């Protein structure tokens, strides 16, 4: 039987015991500490509520080997690849590593605010001994399976992350000065936590700048998005960097729960509709219809901006020490067409060729006021009709960006907007 103590670390002086997560090779269980249950702060309101039974047996299923809220804390994609390389370096077969061992490897070096004890992974201060361009070039080689030994700095910086693309969690100076620090850990005063996505060898030259353009376009559409920038990495290309919203500064951490984690589903195989997502948002955010309207605005933007990679892991909720839930700022917004134009999350049951009528039908399904829905839809269409200006401002002029502009203009036209 393997057991992990689960805690919430909102800051260095606010560390709360949550409960115990256990596995024995046949099943997985979780139990809240009674003191945490009485305190009333939910970490997963839909699928692991405080009001549930004392000892909860998790129904293990593909893609969700442990309860969704803890599965969120596990790395996936890129981060999991780095963790598995670390285990392989010690002679462990990847198939023998359990989800709880992965969480123990991370310990307190997790995204969000959940931390796990005992910790078995690397320890020590965050690192600053490798140039970011060197780390990015090494990440490219790891991503392409051209190197077996992974730099310790990359494991520290990329191990907690998710998503398919190579990336690193870094600290950058708030004043824009030189210097980079890698990995999860408390940053010195004057530093901020950022996530940097490295370009791969198969990406076009605009990929990082194009994501900056999409985030600027989303901001113009009235969507809450984090601060972003482009980092020029010598010999690698332009990397997209985004200020982390789970690290607001001053050593504070925020608990983060993806929509997939909230619903306890595997985002890779689960078919979802924005109606389901908006109803979940209504419950998680305490009945706040303004948060539901924010999801509608985001759905509209994803349709107009041809971001078809809108699976349930790309939506999240945040809760701080006060226990108040809210929708997280939007992330992973870029030009992302999928085969046959079928998006991950459907709109009123429609997966391709979504129109204004489909979106207004969606708004009606979840009780949004028609006037508010139309205003949001029109604001989004106005912003995306300006796609060529956003691409130009970001310095994007390659063939993929030109194709993206044409696709966005066509999608915007279906929403009643006109290209400028």
Describe this structure in words.
The chain is an alpha+beta fold and 420 residues long. The protein has 3 domains: 2-117, no CATH class; 132-243, no CATH class; 255-414, Phosphatidylinositol 3-kinase Catalytic Subunit, Chain A, Domain 5 (Orthogonal Bundle), CATH 1.10.1070. The protein is 34% helix and 19% strand. The protein is built from 14 helices and 15 strands. The protein has helices spanning 34-39, 68-71, 78-89, 99-106, 132-143, 152-158, 207-220, 259-263, 274-284, 289-304, 356-365, 370-384, 387-393, 399-414, and strands spanning 2-11, 14-23, 28-32, 55-58, 114-117, 167-173, 180-182, 191-197, 228-233, 237-243, 255-258, 272-273, 316-319, 325-327, 345-346. A 5-stranded antiparallel sheet has the order 4-3-2-1-5. It has a 5-stranded antiparallel sheet with strand order 7-6-8-10-9. Helix 7 (207-220) packs across helix 13 (387-393) and helix 9 (274-284) packs antiparallel against helix 10. The chain is globular. It starts with a strand and ends in a 6-residue tail after the last helix. The model has no long low-confidence stretch (mean pLDDT 92).
């Amino acid at each position: 039987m393997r057991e992990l103590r689960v805690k919430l670390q909102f800051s260095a002086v606010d560390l709360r015991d949550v409960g115990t997560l256990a596995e024995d090779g046949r099943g997985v269980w979780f139990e809240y500490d009674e003191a945490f249950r009485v305190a009333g702060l939910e970490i997963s309101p839909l699928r692991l509520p405080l009001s549930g039974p004392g000892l909860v047996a998790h129904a293990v299923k593909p893609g969700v080997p442990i309860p969704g809220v803890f599965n969120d804390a596990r790395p996936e994609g890129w981060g999991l690849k780095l963790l598995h390389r670390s285990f392989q370096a010690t002679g462990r077969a990847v198939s023998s590593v359990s989800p709880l061992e992965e969480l123990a490897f991370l310990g307190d070096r997790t995204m969000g605010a959940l931390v796990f004890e005992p910790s078995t992974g690397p320890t020590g201060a965050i690192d600053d001994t490798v140039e970011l361009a060197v780390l990015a070039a090494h990440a490219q080689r790891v991503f392409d399976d051209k190197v077996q030994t992974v730099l310790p700095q990359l494991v520290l910086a990329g191990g907690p992350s998710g998503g398919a693309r190579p990336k690193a969690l870094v600290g950058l100076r708030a004043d824009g000065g030189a210097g980079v620090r890698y990995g999860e850990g408390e940053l010195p005063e004057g530093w901020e936590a950022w996530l940097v996505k490295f370009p791969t060898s198969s990406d076009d030259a605009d990929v990082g700048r194009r994501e900056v353009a999409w985030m600027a376009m989303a901001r113009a559409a009235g969507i809450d998005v984090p601060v972003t920038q482009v980092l020029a990495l010598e010999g690698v290309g332009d990397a997209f960097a985004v200020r982390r919203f789970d690290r607001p500064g001053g050593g504070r951490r925020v608990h983060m729960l993806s929509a997939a984690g909230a619903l306890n589903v595997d985002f890779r195989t689960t078919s979802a509709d924005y109606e389901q997502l908006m109803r979940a948002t209504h419950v998680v955010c305490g009945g706040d219809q303004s948060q539901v309207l924010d999801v509608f605005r985001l759905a509209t933007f994803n349709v107009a901006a041809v971001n078809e990679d809108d699976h349930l892991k790309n939506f999240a909720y945040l809760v701080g020490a006060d226990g108040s839930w809210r929708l997280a700022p939007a992330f992973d917004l870029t030009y992302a067409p999928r085969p046959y134009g079928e998006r991950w999350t459907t709109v009123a049951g429609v997966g391709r060729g979504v129109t204004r009528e489909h979106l207004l039908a969606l708004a009606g399904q979840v009780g949004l006021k028609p006037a508010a829905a139309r205003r949001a839809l029109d604001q989004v269409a106005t912003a995306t009709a300006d796609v060529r200006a956003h691409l130009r401002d970001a310095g994007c002029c390659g063939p993929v960006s030109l194709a993206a502009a044409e696709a966005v203009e066509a999608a915007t036209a279906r929403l009643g907007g006109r290209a400028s």
